[in-house]
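User: I've been trying to design a sequence by hand for this structure and keep getting stuck. Would you show me what you'd pick, starting by listing the structure so we're on the same page?

Assistant: Good idea, let's start from the same input. This is the structure you sent:
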């Protein structure tokens, strides 16, 4: 018996499809997988909000600090005074499930943010902009409003999703979930979330001082004084347009019959 080896056809291991078509199919497929994972993770975050109470969150993140936070010296007077002010404002929120911690980021860009476990970060840039305790109190009260509505967890959830996505796409290390990731997504706070945080913050300010004078003065100055606009881009991109915002705050104060004139407290540094 003779064995005749059958010749293999040329290119048996090469697909009939053009390589460029294959590459684009792969990219589209990967993008679809990412999109599905992202939507699933956002859903998981929403689900977690139902099952993980604010108390659990406070326990889980009680000592947590973002990896990329660069703080001022721990004995900085501004840190001490800002913490005191947060404690005073929070005392008007009975049963608040968080022990609020203040950290001052050394960035010169004005910003403030609420992070998991009751962490409030304000930047040196913001502290340089405020001219009275009342102005600062409102910004802090607004952040307390985000905790109240747990907006910060939604933002962080999206932050984790996004940083993982960027890590895979850019090949960078995803281990450190820091301010930047949180900050990107804080921009995603809805107008509705911001308005609710404003109203809650105003209420705390009113409880503390008996009036809401200077609560929106910082924003009024920013509206007029364009010179420092560059510093404010971050804050403004995370917060509603100042003009509408001031009008909404005034309307809310009027509705609640909160005095808009009162004694102004100087900053103590
Ligand atoms: Zn906000």
């Amino acid at each position: 018996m003779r064995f005749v080896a059958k010749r293999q056809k040329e290119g048996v291991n090469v697909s009939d499809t053009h390589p460029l078509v294959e590459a684009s199919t792969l990219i589209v497929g990967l993008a679809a997988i990412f999109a599905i994972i992202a939507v699933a993770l956002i859903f998981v975050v929403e689900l977690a909000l139902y099952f993980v109470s604010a108390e659990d969150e406070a326990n889980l993140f009680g000592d947590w600090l973002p990896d990329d936070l660069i703080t001022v010296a721990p004995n900085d007077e501004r840190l001490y005074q800002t913490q005191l002010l947060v404690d005073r404002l929070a005392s008007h929120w009975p049963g608040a499930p968080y022990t609020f911690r203040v950290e001052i980021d050394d960035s010169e860009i004005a910003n403030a943010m609420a992070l998991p476990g009751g962490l409030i970060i304000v930047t040196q840039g913001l502290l340089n902009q405020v001219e009275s305790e009342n102005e600062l109190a409102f910004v802090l009260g607004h952040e307390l409003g985000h905790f109240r509505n747990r907006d910060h967890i939604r933002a962080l959830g999206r932050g984790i999703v996004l940083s993982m996505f960027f890590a895979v796409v850019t090949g960078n290390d995803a281990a450190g979930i820091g301010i930047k990731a949180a900050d990107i997504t804080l921009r995603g706070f809805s107008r509705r979330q911001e308005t609710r945080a404003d109203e809650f913050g105003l209420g705390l300010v009113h409880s503390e001082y008996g009036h809401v004078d200077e609560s929106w003065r910082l924003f009024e100055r920013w509206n007029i004084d364009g010179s420092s606009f560059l510093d404010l881009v971050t804050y403004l991109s995370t917060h509603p347009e100042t003009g509408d915002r001031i009008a909404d705050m005034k309307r809310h104060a009027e509705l609640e019959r909160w005095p808009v004139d009162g004694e102004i407290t100087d900053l103590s540094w």
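That's my pick for every position. To get oriented when you compare it with your attempt: The first strand starts at residue 101 and ends at 105. Confidence is low (pLDDT under 50) at residues 226-231.
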